[in-house]
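Structure ticket #2291
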Amino acid sequence: MRRLRACLGAAAAVGLTAAGTTALVAGNASGATTALDNRWYAAAPYLMPLDNDPPDPAAIMDATGLKAFQLAFVLAPNGGGCSPTWGGTTPVSSDTAVQSVIDGIRAKGGDVSVSIGGYGGTKLGQTCSDAAATAAAYQQVITKYGLHAIDFDLEEPEYENTAAIKNEIGAAKILQQNNPGLYVSVTTAGTADGTGWFGKQMLLEAKSQGFTPNNFSIMPFDGGFNGASSQTSALTNFNAILQSTFGWDQATAYAHEGFSGMNGRSDTGEIFTQADFQTVLDYATSHNMDRFTFWSLNRDRQCTPPDNGGRTSGTCSSVAQNAWDFAKYSVKFAGATPPTSTPTPTPTPTPTPTGCKAAWSSSSVYTAGDEVSYNKHNWKAKWWTQNEAPAATDWGPWQDEGAC
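Resolution: structure written out below.
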């Protein structure tokens, strides 16, 4: 998934060299913050504060009543190393842009969680030497921003690396121990069976280390899902996996289970509407699940012009909607009542397909601007590429130009 898609605080660096040292959650330069109820951190939708045309959190808060945001993603530096960055490029240590976003949210009575990992990129669990070093890197993030919540988004390609996952789970356990009251979620890929082999190995690693987060969440999309019924089926299956792995009863497993969806058109062309979100929300609340979130607020607005599901975008949902429709389901999960909004707009008719370009060839070399046809769509190359089949993903080399 994801998807379309550090400050060496001295106290943190010293305090976490040994897992047994206690390090309290610190405030940032503007002072300590008051934590929200955990239900808000459990409901926080993902927001990329530096990429994908970031929306104004204050406007979302005013329009929906949302109080918490899941900021994404903290990664290892692109050039290697064990210090936290935003997206692999912006060191947390020198960051002012994300700090400004956080300060604005807190000024309105809200708060943030920070998500580490995500799809692609190099993760700190891959580059740090062990769990203690990985935890020390993440402690820098917690200390700088005065965090009360953190999300470990463990997926491709990191979750195929046994040593990296051992570091991440070990780091999560250390942070949980050293930051009393810290809300910790662990997010991984979803499948029709609940989660795949690597997700199950991650759960076994958590069990072996004696680590229990507030929740383990799955992402039931980008895996051949078809609407809410397939997602709730996956959540039911994942509950059984949690029971068998940890020896929990059904209720305990649901109390440690979470849902992380994708609003609108997914990377693989699945469509999840407002009605689908309501169905999954009803399932989550009726089963007393711990988390309900989605990717992402950057996408929680209608495309301009509306494209009715013809492409996957990092900045709009590709379904008919009012701005921030999907955020309101997170607000409901948190137990609040969103403001009344206008009805969902009528979808714009699908445009008449244009003529197809020359067919894509796996052996041909394409450069930026070259156009091809593939699977009855025209595609434009974003950069040099060869033997990469066109697919509707923001991180790939092809831009979908619509049906032909």
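Closing remark: The chain has twelve helices and 17 strands.
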